[in-house]
Amino acid sequence: xxxxxxxxxxxxxxxxxxxxxxxxxxxxxxxxxxxxxxxxxxxxxxxxxxxxxxxxxxxxxxxxxxxxxxxxxxxxxxxxxxxxxxxxxxxxxxxxxxxxxxxxxxxxxxxxxxxxxxxxxxxxxxxxxxxxxxxxxxxxxxxxxxxxxxxxxxxxxxxxxxxxxxxxxxxxxxxxxxxxxxxxxxxxxxxxxxxxxxxxxxxxxxxxxxxxxxxxxxxxxxxxxxxxxxxx
Length: 232
What we know:
By secondary structure, the chain is an alpha/beta fold.
């Protein structure tokens, strides 16, 4: 497998999700045209992305769905167990803690943390919420490599610093502020407010275009009759 461009990596989960849908329908093979239509990409782009994985479809047959799913899952690191902690068990953190898709994607939730006395000691999604004072101990003991940060904005950077110092190498940040991490640590920012604002912008653009009046056409001058030549 060749080194994957970031843009290709970003598209792989969509390919995998669509392949899973095909598999659930009993489909065993798919063409680049069919899969590209499902994910909203061009067939040429899809074939180029899959070529980085060494995945080539057979002429007249296409791609074997299960085999391609395994190739993409391996490229995304889903064949290895990744241990995850969540810091911040408010409304969003609570929803993330009860997400049922961790195991299907190779992730195991090993710890929930918060500072709110009303939350510490309660059970969410089968895990007891612990006080954030024990964060480093759990990360090190459980060998957690991924952390989800769902804290208030003011706590996002200090929390991230603690996680990185404890050994976390991947951070999914839902806090409404950007966090800085050192080289060797990956961070993904998920700002729900910004995403909604972007959707609002596109909605406004569409409504503005629809409301814009069509320019009036200048009527063409009616043809004038040619002058009749005078008689000699």
